[in-house]
């Protein structure tokens, strides 16, 4: 974001201690294995895909900040940009652009995308703020890298922060698929956060966890997912924790902190009762 508009935003952010903005951090997978010609082709295609995605949601050139990261991009959108468009149509357009570019090509352009929102300060050197740091951590997390390494057919992986999932993605909307995200814990450097992983057009990302937990049911049954806490299998949730966990082929339900373990028709100990204060849309 350059010119008078960019300078005005920079002054305002510096004086106010930051402005709430949508942050995107993108990275090309496996760029270290590419030769120079392939790197140049991938960078050109990445920028073209980003530009097409911006245009699809009405973001005009010069109205956002974007930094080149060699094999990636860091961007912060205007404060008035509706975040639902970014987690909906923007992601969908980026996916379509990658698919069109990759048809008949090898090696393919494959991207990891970290998304977050929060206070950001922009100065003449670039962007700073926890929202920026977390977007980068999500994109570069070991779980994200492992997914792309274990699933070479996946060309786009999106990782959103817990805040962004709970406040934007979970509300749904056109092109938004909240039930197709899976939750996992990110532990990297000083970061210890929940994050949500999404592969467009898939019911669930092929998550591979350290303890090999299987995704219960669905198209990805038999695959493994990242553990949360002590290795619980993770399914879709609103951010209240893992739902469900498997054990011995039977189901375990986590209901508002009380554990009900059912094997056949027998209820095993440790259950203190199901609370009656469950909110709308939560199990009672």
TrEMBL record:
Residues 228-238 have a biased composition (Gly residues). InterPro entries: A/G_cyclase (IPR001054), Nucleotide_cyclase (IPR029787). PROSITE patterns: GUANYLATE_CYCLASE_2. Residues 207-250 are annotated as: Disordered. Residues 22-139 form the Guanylate cyclase domain. One of its GO terms (molecular function) is adenylate cyclase activity. It comes from the Bacteria. One of its GO terms (biological process) is intracellular signal transduction. This is Guanylate cyclase domain-containing protein.
């Amino acid at each position: 974001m350059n010119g008078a508009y960019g300078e005005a935003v920079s002054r305002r952010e510096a004086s106010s201690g930051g402005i709430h903005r949508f942050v995107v951090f993108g990275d090309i997978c496996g760029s270290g294995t590419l030769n120079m010609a392939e790197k140049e082709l991938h960078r050109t295609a990445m920028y073209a895909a980003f530009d097409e995605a911006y245009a699809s949601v009405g973001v005009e050139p010069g109205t956002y900040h974007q930094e080149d990261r060699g094999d990636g991009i860091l961007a912060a959108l205007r404060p008035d940009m509706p975040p639902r468009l970014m987690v909906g149509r923007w992601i969908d357009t980026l996916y379509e652009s990658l698919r069109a570019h990759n048809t008949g090509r090898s090696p393919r352009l494959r991207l990891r995308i970290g998304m977050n929102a929060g206070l950001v300060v922009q100065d003449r050197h670039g962007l700073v703020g926890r929202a920026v740091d977390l977007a980068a951590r999500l994109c570069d997390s070991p779980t994200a890298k492992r997914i792309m390494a274990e699933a070479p057919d996946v060309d786009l992986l999106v990782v959103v922060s817990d805040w962004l999932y709970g406040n934007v993605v979970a509300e749904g909307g056109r092109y938004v698929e909240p039930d197709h995200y899976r939750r996992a814990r990110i532990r990297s450097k000083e970061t210890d956060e929940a994050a949500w992983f999404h592969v467009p057009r898939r019911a669930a990302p092929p998550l591979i966890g350290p303890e090999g937990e299987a995704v219960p049911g669905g198209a990805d049954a038999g695959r493994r997912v990242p553990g949360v806490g002590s290795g619980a299998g993770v399914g879709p949730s609103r951010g209240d924790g893992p739902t469900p966990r498997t054990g011995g082929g039977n189901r375990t339900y986590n209901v508002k902190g009380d554990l009900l373990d059912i094997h056949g028709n027998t209820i095993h100990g440790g259950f203190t009762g199901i609370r009656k204060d469950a909110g709308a849309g939560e199990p009672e």
